Amino acid sequence: MKYGSENEISGLTPSGVDELQQWQTACIQRQNICHLRKSLTCYDPARYTSLWTIDLSLKTGMEAEDFAAMPAAVNHKIVASTRSGKVLVVDPVKGAIETVYDLETTMKYQAVVNDGWIYAGSKEGKLISYNTGNPAFTGWPMWSLNAAHNPVVE
User: Fold this and answer.
1) pLDDT over 70 at 131, yes or no
2) Could you tell me if residue 37 is left (phi over 0), alpha (psi between -120 and 50 degrees) or otherwise beta?
3) Which of the chain's termini has less CB crowding within 10 Å, N or C?
4) Across all residues in the chain, what is the average pLDDT?
5) pLDDT greater at residue 123 or residue 19
6) Is residue 70 within 8 Å of residue 61, measured between CB atoms?
7) Is position 110 within any domain?
8) CATH number for the domain that contains residue 37
9) What's the angle, vertex CA 80, arms to CA 79 and CA 83, rounded to 5?
């Protein structure tokens, strides 16, 4: 990654911003969930020890996958997107992948989950909607943290 100077993050190229975004951390159920390319790691924030890691390069059929964006919290689960369009539902205690939804498009941003639907922005600029068939699967109706970061107001 190239910075303006050793201690300054300015003048980043779009790919530099994308690389920086890969380091975002979500605090979900008093745990820090961090992603970096192929891994999703859960840390205990009090001791900063790793509780579990999902390494996609070790998952059969997902070896070429990368995580696309910061994970979200939905119904006491972690929802993480991959660049190839898979949305993973992860148990936050065990670090086990419980469900995989394949949106069949390349993704660059965080998935939104509301009333059983997954919404995602594709790399090609399209809005993808996927019905999970489970209306109780809801809880992240916005992109990037909270309504203050979301231009849509209900």
Assistant:
1) yes
2) left
3) C
4) 78
5) 123
6) no
7) yes
8) 2.130.10.10
9) 150
* Per-residue model confidence as pLDDT tens digits over 99-115: 999 999 888 778 889 99
DSSP output for 79-145: EEEBTTSEEEEE-TTT--EEEEEE--S-B-S--EEETTEEEEEBTTS-EEEEE-S-TT---B-SSSS
Largest CA-CA distance found in the chain, in angstroms, rounded: 50
Average pLDDT on 35-46 reads 87
Residues, the chain: 154
Residue 69 maps to a domain: yes
Domain limits for position 25: 14-149
What is the C-alpha separation between 25 and 11, in angstroms, rounded?
23
Residue 4 belongs to some domain of the structure: no
Rounded to whole angstroms, the Cα distance separating 40 from 86 reads 14
